[in-house]
């Protein structure tokens, strides 16, 4: 079935496959293989969050995903210089900027866009210039949406 703009799209997040691999201290299950299987099953895109602490997805996973995926990668990342450099190196289809707190197991809240408009604007510019679609993970607070 051809991909159309009007069709609901399915993106598959492979972070927890990597979490399980890392908990085992092994090379399996392989998040890159999981991404390929998701593509074969009809996924329209793959999401992977390279956290600063590398608790699930690792740098090598991003490199392998970019080399093998047939569908777009949505690269979730914190708004840090290190993550920006990685995104600019690989130029994924999309970047979703998310907040990160080391004590949380998974992303629990949105960015405080209203408090960081200038910084985020400067951060996003190079990503857009590199051809990445950029989105922000925000809370449903109207103040954040308007920012």
Helices and strands, with pairings:
Blueprint: E1 11-13, H1 15-24, H2 31-40, E2 45-49, H3 59-68, E3 73-77, H4 81-90, E4 94-97, H5 117-129, E5 133-136, H6 142-146
Parallel strand pairs: 1-2, 2-3, 3-4, 4-5
Helix pairs in contact: 2-3
Would you give an account of this structure?
There is one protein chain. With 147 residues, this protein is an alpha/beta fold. Helix content is 39%, strand content 14%. It has six helices and five strands. The protein has a five-stranded parallel sheet. Helix 4 links the parallel strand 3 and strand 4. The radius of gyration is 16 Å and the shape is globular. The mean pLDDT is 90.
Features:
single chain, 147 residues, alpha/beta, TIM Barrel, five-stranded parallel beta sheet, 6 helices, globular
